[in-house]
Design goal:
Elements: H1 4-20, H2 23-34, E1 40-41, H3 42-49, H4 53-65, E2 69-74, E3 77-82, H5 84-101
Antiparallel strand pairs: 1-3, 2-3
Helix pairs in contact: 2-4
Length: 114
Amino acid sequence: MPTPDDTALITRHADRLAALGAEPRLRIVRLLLSAHPQGLVAGELGAELAIPPSTLSHHLEKLKNEDLVKVRREGTFLWYSANTSALQDLLSFLYAECCTRNKAIEPRQILCCS
C-alpha cells in the first residue's frame, strides 16, 4: 500500500511527465537544455521553434507550473531556463525503479545521447 508521501511523489512526477508529453513542450525543454545555464529569451525560443507567441506563452506557463523551467526578468526581457534540478529528480525517480530496484535495465545500457 503506497504511503501518502509515495502518492504525492508519484502525482508530482506524473504531472511533470504529462507536461513533457506534449511535443512542443518537449522541444522547448530540449532547446533550453542546449542553452543551459543562461537560457533563452521568449522571442528566441519562439523563433527557433516556429511557435507563435501566444502558443509559446501557454506552453511555457505549463512548464513553469510544473517547475520544469525557471523564468527571470532582465529589463524588458523574460529569460527562460531549464530547471535541471527538477529534471534530474524526475530522471532519478524513473532510474530508481528500472535500474536499481528490479534491474529491468542494466545501468550501463542507459546512454546519455544517441
